[in-house]
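Internal ticket #5521
Category: modeling
Description: The requester needs a full-assembly model to guide mutagenesis choices. All entity lines are attached below as received. Residue total reported by intake: 841.
Assigned to: D.W.
Attached entities:
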Amino acid sequence: MTRFAPGGPFDSDKAIPEEIKIKLQSHFGLNLPLFDQYLLYMKNLLAGDLGPSFKYVGWDVSELISLSFPVSLSLGISALLIALLIGLPAGMLAALRKNTLWDYLPMGIAMVGICLPSFVLGPVLIMVFSTELKWLPALGWYSWSDLILPSLTLGLFYAAYVARLTRAGMLETLKQDYIRTARAKGASPSRVLLKHAIRGGLLPVVTYLGPAFAGLVSGSFIIESIFFIPGLGKFFVTAAFNRDYTVVLGTVLFYATLIIILNLFVDFLQAWLDPKAREQQ
Amino acid sequence: MNDVKVHGLKTFFHTRGGVVKAVNDINFSIPSGEVVGLVGESGSGKSVTCHSLLQLLPTPPAKIEGGEIIFQGEDLLGVNNQKMRTLRGKSISMIFQDPMSCLNPYMTVIEQVAEPLLIHGMAGEDKAKQEAVDMLLRVGVDKIKDRVNAYPHEFSGGMRQRVMIAMALITKPELLLADEPTTALDVTVQAKILKLLKKLCAEIGSSILFVSHDLGVVAEIADRVVVMYRGKVVEQNTTRELFRSPTHPYVKALIACRPTFEGNFEILPTVEDFIDNKPYAPSKKKLKEQNKPISEEDKKWLKVNELSVHFQQANHDKVVKAVDRVTLTIPKGKTLGIVGESGSGKTTLGRAILRLTPITSGTVHWHDQDIALVKENGLLAFRKKMQIIFQDPYASLNPRLTIEQTLLEPMLVHRIGKNPKERIDRVVSLLEEVGLASSYLRRYPHEFSGGQRQRICVARALSTEPEFIVCDECVSAMDVSVQAQVLNLLHQLQTARNLTYLFISHDLCVVKHIADEIAVMRAGQIEEFGKAENICLNPQKPYTQELMDSIPRTSVTGTF
C-alpha cells in the first residue's frame, strides 16, 4: 500500500541529482517491475532476511527491529503491569461494593482514563512530576527512571479498561448460582471471592490481555514521540513518512507475528482457567 | 427437642414498583428428624421462605422484616453474620434446584464436595478429600473412582444433583433445605434421587425442609406438608391427612386440578373453580368414551414410516441417532402422546414430522404426499396446515411485536384474509376462542402471565387454520392450575375444530389425560406404542414399567 502513496524513499526537500537517484534505485532493486520486487522480497523473507533500510544507510530492517523492539517491549511490559496492578483491584473493589462510593469513584476515574488521550495525559504528567516536582526525568531513554512516566501514561488507559472489564466480569460471576452455593456452604466473603468467583470473573480480562498487550507494544508511537524514546513504534511511523518500504513491511510482518503469538498464548491461558474450554480443544 | 420453629416470618422485597410481600407472616415447624414438604405454585413464597432460613437472599432488595426462626434454641434472625456463617453448610445445608448452574464450573467435583469440611475446620485437606470420595460413592457417583479430577460439566444432570447432595450432607447437618431438588430431572432419575435423599437423611438423622411445586413429589417424601399461597401458609397437616381431607379451597384445587392416572375427566377443574367457592361438580364424562367411528382412511391420516434423523457431531466422527427408524400412525382428530425422558428424541421426532429439522431417511405420508420429499419452495403450503406450540411461551413470542402483530404475521405470510379489516376480525375471534379479551391486541408479551402467553401461542398456531398441531412440552413449564387451563383449552379446540395433535411431554399423567394413543420413546426409538390406557395401566416393556413406577405416588392412586 505504501507503494501507492505519492513520492519515493529518495524524494526530499534537498534536490538529489537525477543520476544518483537512479543509481540508488537500482542498488535497492527499485527499478525492477513491482511484481519482480515482490518475488525478490518473498524469496529473501523465506531466508529470514527482511531487507535493507532505504533511509538508514547500511542498516538491515531486522537490525532496526532487534534494536528498537526491546525498548518498546520493556515499555509495554511495565505499562501492562501498571494496568493490571491498578485495574484488577479497582475493578474487584467496585464489583464488591456495587453502587457505593467505592464503585462510583474508581469507575468514574476509569471513565476519565479511557476518554483522556495519551497526548494530553503525557504532557500533564511531565508537567507535574518533572517540571514542578522535579522527581522524574521528562524525556529521553537513558536510565530506568525514564521508564516510569511513559509507562504510566500508556498503562493508565489500559488500567481503566481492565478495571471496567474486571468489574463487569466479577459482577456477572457473583450473580451465578454457584456463588450462592458457596455462600450456603458457609464460605466467608473473601473465600467466595478468591476461591469461587475469581476464575470466572477474570476470563474476560484474560481474553482482552492478548490484543491489549499487542497494542501496548505496538501502539505506543505517540508516547514514544512525546517522551523521545527510540522504540519500534517511532521507527514504524517515521518509516511510513519516509517511504522506507522495507522497514514498513518488516515492521508490519513483525507485529502480525507478535499478535498471533500473543493470541495463541491467551488461548492457552484460557484453557488453563476454564475446564470446559479445555475439553473443546 | 431440636425442632426448627418459624414464627411470624416476614420477608419483603423492596422494588421500584413498591413493596412485594413475598413471605407474609408465616408459622410452621420442622420436627426433628422429619421431612416437611413446603408446597406452592410459582410466586407463592416457598423458595423465599427456604432462603430466608439461611439468610441467603440478596439484601437489598430483600429484607426480613420480622419474625423468629428458632434453631437449636436460638433465633437465627438475631445472630450476627459471623455466627450465621458457622451454621451455613455445617448445621444447615442446602440443595438447589438446578444442578447445572449451582456447581462451580471451575472447580473439580471433589474439591467442591470437600469444601464444607475445610471451611468449618472439620478435616484437613487430605482427609476432607478422602471423605468427599467416600460420600460421592455413597450417593452413587461411581465414576469418581476413575475420574478424581472430573469437573461438573463431565456429569449428567442426575449425577450432578447427587454431587449436590453429597456436598450438603458431608457435614452431617441437622437440617437440610432442599429447594426443588428434583424439578430439573427426569422422572426415573427423580425417583432414585428422592429415595436416596430420604435414606441418607434417615441415616444421618437430618430433618428436611423439602420445597416443591409438585404435590406428588412432596407426598412421596414428606411426613408433613405446608401449603403456601401468595406469601401465606394456607394449610398444614400430616401428609396423609392433607391429601385425605384438605380444608382450604386452594389446597383442594391443587389436589384436584392435576391430571391423575385414575381420573379421566374431560375437563380438569381449575383453581378458580375452588377459590370463587362455586359449587364444583366434576364432569364425569370420560375422555375416551366419545369415540366416534372413524373411517379406515382417517385412521392412517398421518403415516410416519422408518423415520430417522441423525446428527453428525462436530469434532467427533460419531453419529447421534436422535430419531432411529420410527414408524407410527396418527388418526385424524385424535391425539398421539409421545412420552420419553430428556434426550430420547421426542422433540426431534416432532420437528422432523414438520420438516423443521432435516430428515435423514424414511417417509412421512400425509394427504397422499411424502412430506420428507417436498421441495423447499413447496413447504409453505404444508406449514399452513401443520403448526407447532413450543414449551417456553416466554422465549417463543417476539418481545418487540404486539399481540396483534404476532397473530397477523402468519396470515400475511400465508395470504389469509382478503383485506386488513377481515384479518383483524379474525385475530379478535382467535383471541376470544382462546379466552382472551380483544382489548389485549395492542399489548406486548411481557404484559401477560405465562398461562396467557401460552394461550397467545395457541392462537398463533390456530391463525393459519391448521389441521395438525405439534405440542412440544407446551404445558411443562406451568403451574398445575395454569396447566389445567391450557389442557382444557386444547381439548375444547380439538373438539370444536377437529384438530389432530402430536402431544410431546415428559409428564406421563398429562399425556395420559390428553392422549388417545401413547408412544413411549427411548434412545430415538419407539419402545412401546398403544392405547393410552393400556400403556399406562398395563405396560408390557420393562422400561415403560419403570417409567410408570417412577411417578410419585399420589398421581398413581389419585388419593391416599
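Resolution: model delivered.
Comment from assignee: The domain at 73-231 of chain A is CATH 1.10.3720.10 (MetI-like fold).
Ticket closed.
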